[in-house]
Amino acid sequence: MSIPSPESPSGQPQPAPQIIVQQQTSAFGRYGKILAVLLGFAVMTIFGLTSSYQRYFSPPDGPQEKYHSLSKTAEKKIAIVDVSGTIMDGEGFVKKQLDRIRSDDKVVGIVLRINSPGGTVTGSDYLYHHVRELCEEKSLPMVVSMGGMCASGGYYIAMAVGDEEDAIFAEPTTWTGSIGVVIPHYDFSGMLENFNVKDDSIASHKYKLMGSPTRKLDPEERAEERELFQELVDLSFEGFKEIVRNGRPKLREDEAALDAVATGQIFTAKQALEKGLVDKIGFLEEAIERVAELASVDVDNVRCVKYNQPMPSLSSLLGAEARSPNLLGGDLQSFLDLTAPRAYYLCTWLPSILSNTQR
């Protein structure tokens, strides 16, 4: 069925009406795709220029120096060394900061800013050694500023201040202490029995399998293994206490006071001050002023700087996902590393699931 066209008064048919629909254009108009590509290119260019600008003043791929406080024009510097997160490997960003200071003759003092629950015995001792070595080599005064937590291995590193007076500052909300050693160990043998799985490992000696979570031991074997591990813990613990003696003269002279705080307990800033674990309750700014005083420089004539991680290149960003450890995805190296028995100066109840990469 067709609809007749309307007729004009003269009787001639009129053309059918036409509806014109105007297409909506994109936000960028006809050239939207081209503009989007140019915008992306501009962002990448700015990113590259920013990275180049930073590297002009700092070594490529090294810690990037940033102004923090005090005089912006002074040549002499107070450097803040940041120790953050769990300490698993000494060869990380902390060590790079120390190396940067070693090559900078304008640094006259160091503030060791620690916000860490600790980490491995080896990693903590490594950083302690290199902090002490740097300060002695360059005759640099150092002050510790504790963040929210400076416990166990973090406190171990803080002892690098040595006999310096009024050198350890804790913020009012800081938790510190946790002087002790732990070797994590879990027994999964009972769970494996439920699935009819038996550990049938073959080793050169029974001690080679010490700490295995899948071996079922009789009470005598379990007691023998625990005794061997306890000896390792005790020896590491004595080393920790010796480090505290070197950094806390008051506790060095009072063995009973040292034993009273070396229980693994965490203390508040006020408790730590009362027990001689810290010298002052104060913030980072007060620690900076103290190290300026020790360096015999006026706060108006010195610049305080800190160091940031270098900006990643575009290629590293694109490849980050492929390189990141993924235990669930089958990173065998990381998985095997977690299964190795290891002693920790660490304030936590589950240290063995941590990545072995220091922040």
The CATH C-level class name: Alpha Beta
C-alpha termini separation: 79 Å
Which outline best applies?
flat
CATH architecture descriptor name: Alpha-Beta Complex
Helical stretch tally: 12
CATH topology: 2-enoyl-CoA Hydratase, Chain A, domain 1
Succession of helices and strands = HEEHEEHEHEEHHHHEHEHEHHE
Number of domains: 1
Going by CATH, the homologous superfamily would be 2-enoyl-CoA Hydratase, Chain A, domain 1
- Please tell me the overall pLDDT: 83
Helix/sheet category:
alpha/beta
Biggest sheet descriptor: 9 strands, mixed
List how many beta strands DSSP finds. Answer: 11
Radius of gyration from CA coordinates: 31 Å
What fraction of the residues are assigned to beta strands by DSSP?
Answer: 15-25%
Helix content: 25-40%
Sequence stretches where pLDDT stays below 50 over 5 or more residues: 51-56, 352-359
Secondary-structure map:
Layout: H1 32-57, E1 64-70, E2 77-84, H2 93-102, E3 107-116, E4 118-120, H3 121-138, E5 142-151, H4 153-158, E6 168-170, E7 175-177, H5 189-194, H6 219-247, H7 249-252, H8 255-261, E8 266-268, H9 269-274, E9 280-281, H10 284-294, E10 303-308, H11 314-323, H12 332-339, E11 344-346
Parallel strand pairs: 2-3, 2-10, 3-5, 5-6, 5-7, 6-9
Antiparallel strand pairs: 1-10, 4-11, 7-8
Helix pairs in contact: 2-3
Tell me what you see in this structure.
This protein has helices spanning about 30-55, 95-100, 120-140, 155-160, 190-195, 220-245, 250, 255-260, 270-275, 285-295, 315-325, 330-340; strands at about 65-70, 75-85, 105-115, 120, 140-150, 170, 175, 265-270, 280, 305-310, 345. It is an alpha/beta fold and about 350 residues long. The protein has one domain: 2-enoyl-CoA Hydratase, Chain A, domain 1 (Alpha-Beta Complex), CATH 3.90.226. Strands 1, 2, 3, 5, 6, 7, 8, 9 and 10 form a 9-stranded mixed β-sheet that branches. It has a two-stranded antiparallel sheet with strand order 4-11. The radius of gyration is 31 Å and the shape is flat. The model is unreliable at about 50-55 and about 350-359 (pLDDT under 50).
